[in-house]
Structures are given as structure tokens and as C-alpha cells.
From TrEMBL:
It comes from the Bacteria. InterPro entries: Ig-like_fold. This is SD-repeat containing protein B domain-containing protein. GO terms for biological process: carbohydrate metabolic process. SUPFAM superfamilies: Hypothetical protein PA1324 (SSF117074).
């Protein structure tokens, strides 16, 4: 699962459909981030400045 449009070095948190934090990461220079090894589920990605729901996951 990955995304773009965030600020550099922003903390991004991944929560599963139960609201449990699954992982956290930081954005890189272009504002992108990536979570790897994420099982199929519905996730919410949150950050300090934005809240988005990702509908795309890589297996």
C-alpha cells in the first residue's frame, strides 16, 4: 500500500478495519510513503495534516 501528497518526513499511520494501528512510517522527499506486507483488509491512513482512506493495496 502506498500513497503520495503528504509533506516530507510526515508520520503516517495505518489502521485496520477494527481501528487497530498496524504500522507507522514516514514520508520521503517527494511526500510518498509505502507499507509492505499488508494483508487484505480495509485500512485507514492518517497523518498529522491529512486523513485519507486508501482503496489500493499491493499483494
Amino acid at each position: 500500500m502506498s500513497g503520495r501528497g503528504f509533506q516530507v518526513a510526515e508520520t503516517v499511520t495505518l489502521k485496520n478495519s477494527s481501528g487497530t494501528v498496524v504500522d507507522t512510517t514516514h514520508t520521503i522527499q517527494d511526500g510518498s510513503f509505502e507499507f509492505t506486507g499488508v494483508p487484505n483488509d480495509t485500512y485507514t491512513v492518517t497523518s498529522k495534516f491529512a486523513k485519507v482512506t486508501c482503496a489500493e493495496a499491493a499483494e
